[in-house]
Design a protein that fits this description.
Blueprint lengths: L10 H14 L8 E2 L2 H8 L3 H13 L3 E4 L3 E4 L2 H4 L3 H8 L7 H26 L2 H17 L5 H16 L2 H16 L1 H14 L4 H8 L3 H12 L8 H7 L2
Antiparallel strand pairs: 1-3, 2-3
Helix pairs in contact: 1-3, 2-3, 5-9, 6-8, 6-9, 6-11, 6-12, 7-8, 7-11, 8-9, 11-12
């Protein structure tokens, strides 16, 4: 089963992390039955209440279903979970070895949402928002390298999201940002290359400042669409080393 005894602090959280990793990695396939609470408590070295708490969290996220008299069944999270799974995985990035495929998927999704968010921002916001974004773009260009880029880039997109005025996009983008930024060893090298390739978000900012939705969408697509080879697990693994 490849589980190990829990050693310290926040026992339900630690049990949750291990079971989450087993499900997301496919070690527990959809339709499989998770070992009963008594067996899990013995393997993990915790009491049954701790195991029950972890299973409850998994059920709330749409990862398992507790069947009366039939144990805990693993669901196909691709069909039953939501974007909140990305946020949870971001919080437990060290425990989940299979985060990289989800990071690649998050980057692809970020492109689609980013294009529409920039378009809406250009339609709905004024020159003042565009000028604020241009200033952040200059800060990004001045930094160019290192982890300081992450909060700066997040600030850029927060301004765009506020200017777009679409709460659903904002909540979705929040989850995507948290997932992509969860692994600094992956996200910083990626962001350094992406920002340099896209002139540090300045074309997006200029289009928004000019209230040109199509130019904003086009600039965002060009900035966020990585070369095909970059959107691969092999590349993600190389980048995160």
């Amino acid at each position: 089963m490849n589980l190990h005894a829990v050693q310290k602090r926040s026992l339900p959280d630690k049990v949750f992390e291990q079971l989450l990793a087993q499900i997301v990695s496919g070690r527990y396939e959809p339709g499989a039955t998770i070992p009963p609470e008594r067996e899990l408590s013995e393997v993990l070295g915790v009491n049954r209440h701790v195991v029950r708490e972890a299973l409850k969290r998994l059920q709330q996220m749409g990862l398992v279903r507790v069947v009366q008299g039939g144990g805990t069944k693993v669901l196909d999270f691709r069909r039953t979970a939501g974007l909140d799974l990305l946020a949870v995985l971001a919080d437990h990035a060290e425990a989940v070895e299979q985060l990289l495929p989800l990071l690649v998927a998050a980057l692809e999704t970020r492109t689609g949402i980013g294009v529409e968010v920039s378009r809406l921002c250009a339609e709905r916001s004024g020159r003042e928002v565009g000028e604020e974004l241009l200033a952040i773009g200059e800060e990004l260009a001045a930094v160019a390298h290192g982890p300081e880029l992450l909060p700066l880039d997040e600030r850029f997109w927060r301004v765009v999201l506020d200017g777009a005025g679409n709460l659903a996009y904002q909540l979705a983008f929040n989850s995507l940002l948290r997932a992509v930024h969860a692994r600094v060893d992956f996200s910083v090298p990626w962001l350094e290359q992406e920002l340099a390739r896209g002139d540090y978000r300045r074309p997006i900012a200029a289009a928004i400042a000019s209230s040109d939705p199509e130019a904003a969408a086009r600039a965002t697509r060009e900035a966020l669409s990585a070369p095909p080879d970059s959107l691969s697990l092999d590349h993600a693994r190389r980048t995160s080393r």
